[in-house]
Write a structure and sequence with these properties.
Layout lengths: L4 H19 L4 H7 L4 H10 L2 H10 L1 H18 L5
Helix pairs in contact: 1-5, 4-5
Length: 84
Amino acid sequence: MALTAQQLWQAEKIDTKVQKLLRAGKDGNTILTAMVGDMPKFKNLMDSVPQSDMDTLTRKFIGFYRFAKILETLVGDIQAGRLR
């Protein structure tokens, strides 16, 4: 399935914001806090595109990939009981 222009735009907006934070030297916790308002966009992408397209987005947009990894780590920490 081809990604729509809207899906690419959402991923690019997330990517741009995360890359700006990374260039400013921000850590994962700070990025997570700064990106709270963008989580619905990310969730929308997760719900609306196949995994293969999510893989494409993470390869194309390094900031998008980093945000996905931050969220993945957060979920793992919650599941392991390290966060409540």
